[in-house]
Write a structure and sequence with these properties.
The complex is a heterodimer of chains A (153) and B (154).
Chain A lengths: L3 H14 L1 H5 L3 E6 L2 E6 L6 E3 L4 E2 L1 H15 L12 E8 L9 E10 L3 E9 L6 E10 L7 H7 L1
Antiparallel strand pairs in A: 1-2, 2-6, 3-4, 5-8, 6-7, 7-8
Chain B lengths: L1 H7 L1 H11 L3 H6 L1 H6 L2 E5 L2 E6 L6 E3 L4 E2 L1 H19 L5 E11 L8 E10 L3 E9 L6 E12 L4
Antiparallel strand pairs in B: 1-2, 2-6, 3-4, 5-8, 6-7, 7-8
Helix pairs in contact in B: 1-2
Classes of the chains: A alpha+beta (153), B alpha+beta (154).
Chain lengths: 153, 154
Amino acid sequence: MLTEQQLTDFASNFVKVIPHCLHLNMSLVKADRNGIELEMPCDNRLIGNPETGVIHSGAITTLMDSCCGISVYTRMEQLEACPTLDLRIDHMTTAQPGKPVRAFAEAYHITRSMVFTRGVAYQEHRDQPIAHVVGTFMRIGQHSMKPVQEYMQ
Amino acid sequence: MKDQIEQSGFASIIKDVRESREYSVLTSGIPYASMIGMQCTPMGDDALFTLPNQMSNIGNPLLPAIHGGVIGGFMEMSAALHLMLFMEEPRLPKIIDFSIDYLRSGQPRDIFAHCEVCRQGARVANVAVTAWQSKRELPIAIARGHFKLSRGTA
Protein backbone atom coordinates (compact mmCIF):
# COMPACT_ATOMS: atom_id res chain seq x y z
CA MET A 1 0.00 0.00 0.00
CA LEU A 2 1.08 3.58 -0.56
CA THR A 3 1.72 5.39 2.71
CA GLU A 4 -0.64 8.25 3.56
CA GLN A 5 2.25 10.66 2.97
CA GLN A 6 2.87 9.18 -0.51
CA LEU A 7 -0.85 9.41 -1.20
CA THR A 8 -0.99 13.05 -0.03
CA ASP A 9 2.05 13.98 -2.14
CA PHE A 10 0.65 12.22 -5.19
CA ALA A 11 -2.82 13.78 -4.86
CA SER A 12 -1.61 17.31 -4.24
CA ASN A 13 0.74 17.02 -7.25
CA PHE A 14 -1.96 15.46 -9.43
CA VAL A 15 -4.26 18.52 -9.26
CA LYS A 16 -1.30 20.78 -10.10
CA VAL A 17 0.09 18.88 -13.10
CA ILE A 18 -3.17 17.93 -14.80
CA PRO A 19 -3.82 20.97 -17.03
CA HIS A 20 -7.60 21.00 -16.68
CA CYS A 21 -7.51 20.51 -12.88
CA LEU A 22 -5.05 23.38 -12.70
CA HIS A 23 -7.29 25.45 -14.97
CA LEU A 24 -10.16 25.02 -12.47
CA ASN A 25 -7.78 25.73 -9.53
CA MET A 26 -8.59 22.46 -7.76
CA SER A 27 -6.71 21.75 -4.55
CA LEU A 28 -6.29 18.82 -2.20
CA VAL A 29 -8.06 19.12 1.15
CA LYS A 30 -7.25 15.71 2.57
CA ALA A 31 -5.92 12.36 1.42
CA ASP A 32 -5.97 9.25 3.57
CA ARG A 33 -6.90 5.56 3.44
CA ASN A 34 -10.61 6.41 3.70
CA GLY A 35 -10.69 8.59 0.64
CA ILE A 36 -9.78 11.81 -1.12
CA GLU A 37 -11.19 15.25 -0.58
CA LEU A 38 -10.73 18.03 -3.16
CA GLU A 39 -11.93 21.60 -3.39
CA MET A 40 -12.82 23.66 -6.45
CA PRO A 41 -13.08 27.40 -5.73
CA CYS A 42 -16.02 29.49 -6.85
CA ASP A 43 -15.23 30.88 -10.31
CA ASN A 44 -17.40 32.93 -12.68
CA ARG A 45 -16.01 30.97 -15.67
CA LEU A 46 -17.88 27.88 -14.42
CA ILE A 47 -21.32 29.48 -14.55
CA GLY A 48 -23.85 27.49 -16.56
CA ASN A 49 -26.83 29.78 -16.10
CA PRO A 50 -25.95 33.49 -16.37
CA GLU A 51 -29.38 34.42 -14.99
CA THR A 52 -28.86 32.68 -11.64
CA GLY A 53 -25.04 32.46 -11.47
CA VAL A 54 -25.25 28.72 -10.77
CA ILE A 55 -22.20 26.73 -11.93
CA HIS A 56 -22.64 24.18 -14.71
CA SER A 57 -23.00 20.51 -13.82
CA GLY A 58 -20.06 19.79 -16.15
CA ALA A 59 -17.67 21.46 -13.71
CA ILE A 60 -18.95 19.11 -11.00
CA THR A 61 -18.48 16.16 -13.37
CA THR A 62 -14.85 17.19 -13.87
CA LEU A 63 -14.27 17.61 -10.13
CA MET A 64 -15.85 14.23 -9.36
CA ASP A 65 -14.02 12.42 -12.18
CA SER A 66 -10.74 13.79 -10.82
CA CYS A 67 -11.59 12.99 -7.20
CA CYS A 68 -12.78 9.43 -7.97
CA GLY A 69 -9.74 8.98 -10.22
CA ILE A 70 -7.35 9.86 -7.38
CA SER A 71 -9.30 7.79 -4.80
CA VAL A 72 -8.31 4.71 -6.80
CA TYR A 73 -4.80 5.06 -5.33
CA THR A 74 -6.02 4.71 -1.73
CA ARG A 75 -6.29 0.96 -2.44
CA MET A 76 -3.23 0.43 -4.64
CA GLU A 77 0.04 -1.31 -3.84
CA GLN A 78 1.82 0.86 -6.38
CA LEU A 79 0.89 3.67 -8.74
CA GLU A 80 -0.63 2.54 -12.02
CA ALA A 81 -2.66 4.36 -14.67
CA CYS A 82 -6.44 3.85 -14.37
CA PRO A 83 -8.63 5.41 -17.04
CA THR A 84 -12.34 6.08 -16.36
CA LEU A 85 -14.60 3.38 -17.75
CA ASP A 86 -17.85 5.01 -16.71
CA LEU A 87 -19.17 7.73 -14.50
CA ARG A 88 -22.69 8.40 -13.27
CA ILE A 89 -23.74 11.55 -11.48
CA ASP A 90 -27.04 12.14 -9.70
CA HIS A 91 -27.80 15.77 -8.99
CA MET A 92 -29.60 16.17 -5.66
CA THR A 93 -29.88 19.94 -5.89
CA THR A 94 -28.25 22.88 -7.67
CA ALA A 95 -25.05 24.32 -6.24
CA GLN A 96 -25.33 27.62 -4.41
CA PRO A 97 -23.67 30.43 -6.38
CA GLY A 98 -20.57 32.09 -4.99
CA LYS A 99 -19.41 29.16 -2.87
CA PRO A 100 -16.66 26.62 -3.49
CA VAL A 101 -17.56 22.99 -4.20
CA ARG A 102 -15.91 20.15 -2.34
CA ALA A 103 -15.67 16.55 -3.46
CA PHE A 104 -15.12 13.42 -1.43
CA ALA A 105 -14.55 10.04 -3.09
CA GLU A 106 -13.59 6.57 -1.92
CA ALA A 107 -12.60 3.38 -3.71
CA TYR A 108 -14.99 0.87 -2.18
CA HIS A 109 -13.90 -2.22 -4.09
CA ILE A 110 -10.84 -3.24 -6.04
CA THR A 111 -10.20 -6.30 -8.23
CA ARG A 112 -7.22 -7.27 -10.39
CA SER A 113 -8.71 -5.41 -13.34
CA MET A 114 -11.16 -2.82 -11.94
CA VAL A 115 -11.59 -0.23 -9.21
CA PHE A 116 -15.08 0.79 -8.08
CA THR A 117 -15.43 4.27 -6.61
CA ARG A 118 -18.19 6.44 -5.20
CA GLY A 119 -18.39 9.94 -3.87
CA VAL A 120 -20.31 13.11 -3.17
CA ALA A 121 -20.05 16.77 -4.10
CA TYR A 122 -21.09 19.21 -1.40
CA GLN A 123 -20.75 22.80 -0.26
CA GLU A 124 -21.57 23.10 3.46
CA HIS A 125 -21.43 19.57 4.85
CA ARG A 126 -20.65 16.16 3.42
CA ASP A 127 -24.00 14.89 4.69
CA GLN A 128 -25.82 17.48 2.55
CA PRO A 129 -24.56 16.48 -0.90
CA ILE A 130 -25.41 18.42 -4.03
CA ALA A 131 -24.47 15.37 -6.13
CA HIS A 132 -23.71 11.67 -5.75
CA VAL A 133 -21.35 9.88 -8.08
CA VAL A 134 -20.25 6.35 -8.90
CA GLY A 135 -17.32 5.71 -11.21
CA THR A 136 -15.58 2.58 -12.46
CA PHE A 137 -11.91 2.68 -13.36
CA MET A 138 -9.88 0.17 -15.33
CA ARG A 139 -6.46 -1.07 -14.15
CA ILE A 140 -4.10 -1.23 -17.09
CA GLY A 141 -0.95 -2.30 -15.27
CA GLN A 142 1.97 -0.92 -13.31
CA HIS A 143 4.22 -0.43 -16.33
CA SER A 144 1.78 2.27 -17.46
CA MET A 145 2.63 4.54 -14.53
CA LYS A 146 6.40 4.90 -14.87
CA PRO A 147 6.33 7.88 -17.23
CA VAL A 148 3.65 9.49 -15.03
CA GLN A 149 5.86 9.24 -11.95
CA GLU A 150 8.80 10.69 -13.83
CA TYR A 151 6.66 13.52 -15.17
CA MET A 152 5.36 14.40 -11.73
CA GLN A 153 8.80 14.66 -10.13
CA MET B 1 -23.98 38.30 -25.33
CA LYS B 2 -23.64 37.39 -21.66
CA ASP B 3 -25.05 40.80 -20.74
CA GLN B 4 -27.90 40.24 -23.15
CA ILE B 5 -28.80 37.01 -21.34
CA GLU B 6 -28.58 38.74 -17.97
CA GLN B 7 -30.84 41.56 -19.15
CA SER B 8 -33.55 39.89 -21.18
CA GLY B 9 -33.48 36.43 -19.58
CA PHE B 10 -32.50 33.01 -20.84
CA ALA B 11 -35.97 32.04 -22.05
CA SER B 12 -36.32 34.99 -24.43
CA ILE B 13 -32.78 34.49 -25.81
CA ILE B 14 -33.56 30.83 -26.51
CA LYS B 15 -36.70 31.88 -28.35
CA ASP B 16 -34.72 34.33 -30.52
CA VAL B 17 -31.94 31.82 -31.22
CA ARG B 18 -34.44 29.16 -32.28
CA GLU B 19 -35.65 31.56 -34.94
CA SER B 20 -32.33 33.07 -36.04
CA ARG B 21 -30.42 29.73 -35.82
CA GLU B 22 -27.41 31.72 -34.62
CA TYR B 23 -26.53 29.07 -32.07
CA SER B 24 -23.21 30.67 -31.21
CA VAL B 25 -25.19 33.24 -29.20
CA LEU B 26 -25.88 30.50 -26.65
CA THR B 27 -22.37 29.05 -26.41
CA SER B 28 -20.73 32.47 -26.19
CA GLY B 29 -23.30 33.61 -23.61
CA ILE B 30 -22.77 30.72 -21.21
CA PRO B 31 -19.47 31.13 -19.31
CA TYR B 32 -18.82 27.37 -18.86
CA ALA B 33 -19.39 26.71 -22.58
CA SER B 34 -17.00 29.56 -23.46
CA MET B 35 -14.40 28.36 -20.96
CA ILE B 36 -14.13 24.89 -22.48
CA GLY B 37 -14.37 26.52 -25.93
CA MET B 38 -17.37 24.61 -27.24
CA GLN B 39 -19.31 25.61 -30.33
CA CYS B 40 -22.74 24.82 -31.71
CA THR B 41 -23.56 25.00 -35.41
CA PRO B 42 -26.72 24.24 -37.38
CA MET B 43 -26.60 20.94 -39.31
CA GLY B 44 -29.69 20.59 -41.50
CA ASP B 45 -32.65 20.71 -39.12
CA ASP B 46 -30.34 19.57 -36.35
CA ALA B 47 -27.28 20.90 -34.50
CA LEU B 48 -23.69 19.75 -34.27
CA PHE B 49 -21.68 20.46 -31.15
CA THR B 50 -17.91 20.84 -31.39
CA LEU B 51 -15.23 21.01 -28.73
CA PRO B 52 -12.10 22.33 -30.46
CA ASN B 53 -8.84 21.12 -28.97
CA GLN B 54 -7.33 23.46 -26.40
CA MET B 55 -4.42 22.89 -24.00
CA SER B 56 -6.43 23.79 -20.89
CA ASN B 57 -8.83 20.86 -21.52
CA ILE B 58 -6.07 18.23 -21.27
CA GLY B 59 -6.39 15.67 -18.48
CA ASN B 60 -3.40 13.48 -19.25
CA PRO B 61 -0.43 15.50 -20.51
CA LEU B 62 1.62 12.38 -21.31
CA LEU B 63 -0.63 10.52 -23.71
CA PRO B 64 -1.83 13.32 -24.24
CA ALA B 65 -5.60 13.02 -23.72
CA ILE B 66 -8.52 15.33 -23.05
CA HIS B 67 -9.85 15.27 -19.46
CA GLY B 68 -12.78 12.85 -19.12
CA GLY B 69 -14.60 15.40 -17.01
CA VAL B 70 -14.43 17.98 -19.81
CA ILE B 71 -15.77 15.40 -22.29
CA GLY B 72 -18.62 14.76 -19.82
CA GLY B 73 -19.24 18.47 -19.29
CA PHE B 74 -19.27 19.07 -23.05
CA MET B 75 -21.78 16.23 -23.55
CA GLU B 76 -23.99 17.51 -20.71
CA MET B 77 -23.97 21.03 -22.13
CA SER B 78 -24.70 19.66 -25.62
CA ALA B 79 -27.71 17.71 -24.31
CA ALA B 80 -29.10 20.74 -22.47
CA LEU B 81 -28.63 23.05 -25.47
CA HIS B 82 -30.16 20.45 -27.78
CA LEU B 83 -33.28 20.38 -25.60
CA MET B 84 -33.47 24.19 -25.48
CA LEU B 85 -33.23 24.38 -29.28
CA PHE B 86 -35.41 21.49 -30.41
CA MET B 87 -38.19 20.93 -27.89
CA GLU B 88 -41.64 21.74 -29.22
CA GLU B 89 -41.80 24.82 -27.04
CA PRO B 90 -38.71 26.48 -25.58
CA ARG B 91 -38.20 25.38 -21.99
CA LEU B 92 -35.31 25.31 -19.59
CA PRO B 93 -33.87 21.87 -18.88
CA LYS B 94 -32.42 21.15 -15.44
CA ILE B 95 -30.14 18.16 -15.08
CA ILE B 96 -31.34 15.23 -12.94
CA ASP B 97 -28.69 12.64 -13.70
CA PHE B 98 -26.03 11.89 -16.29
CA SER B 99 -24.25 8.63 -17.08
CA ILE B 100 -21.17 8.52 -19.30
CA ASP B 101 -19.46 5.48 -20.79
CA TYR B 102 -15.92 6.20 -21.96
CA LEU B 103 -15.05 4.08 -24.98
CA ARG B 104 -11.77 5.56 -26.20
CA SER B 105 -9.35 8.16 -24.88
CA GLY B 106 -9.94 11.68 -26.19
CA GLN B 107 -7.04 12.61 -28.47
CA PRO B 108 -5.89 16.24 -28.48
CA ARG B 109 -8.08 17.15 -31.46
CA ASP B 110 -11.68 18.31 -32.02
CA ILE B 111 -14.54 16.35 -30.46
CA PHE B 112 -17.98 16.33 -32.06
CA ALA B 113 -21.26 15.50 -30.35
CA HIS B 114 -24.71 14.68 -31.58
CA CYS B 115 -27.79 14.43 -29.36
CA GLU B 116 -30.99 12.50 -29.69
CA VAL B 117 -34.09 12.97 -27.55
CA CYS B 118 -35.24 9.43 -26.78
CA ARG B 119 -38.32 10.53 -24.93
CA GLN B 120 -39.76 13.87 -23.99
CA GLY B 121 -42.61 13.81 -21.51
CA ALA B 122 -44.38 16.68 -19.80
CA ARG B 123 -41.89 16.82 -16.95
CA VAL B 124 -38.77 14.92 -17.97
CA ALA B 125 -36.68 14.38 -21.10
CA ASN B 126 -34.26 11.53 -21.79
CA VAL B 127 -31.38 12.49 -24.08
CA ALA B 128 -28.66 10.29 -25.57
CA VAL B 129 -25.36 11.86 -26.62
CA THR B 130 -22.66 10.40 -28.86
CA ALA B 131 -19.19 11.97 -28.98
CA TRP B 132 -16.60 11.13 -31.62
CA GLN B 133 -13.36 12.41 -33.17
CA SER B 134 -12.17 10.63 -36.30
CA LYS B 135 -15.41 8.97 -37.41
CA ARG B 136 -18.90 8.96 -36.03
CA GLU B 137 -18.83 5.14 -36.15
CA LEU B 138 -15.95 5.22 -33.66
CA PRO B 139 -17.39 7.08 -30.67
CA ILE B 140 -15.05 8.10 -27.86
CA ALA B 141 -17.95 8.34 -25.38
CA ILE B 142 -21.67 7.75 -25.20
CA ALA B 143 -23.91 9.25 -22.55
CA ARG B 144 -27.48 9.33 -21.36
CA GLY B 145 -29.05 12.05 -19.26
CA HIS B 146 -32.38 12.92 -17.71
CA PHE B 147 -33.48 16.54 -17.55
CA LYS B 148 -36.38 18.09 -15.68
CA LEU B 149 -38.30 20.52 -17.87
CA SER B 150 -39.61 23.75 -16.47
CA ARG B 151 -41.02 26.94 -17.85
CA GLY B 152 -39.26 29.02 -15.22
CA THR B 153 -35.58 29.39 -14.49
CA ALA B 154 -33.45 26.25 -14.72
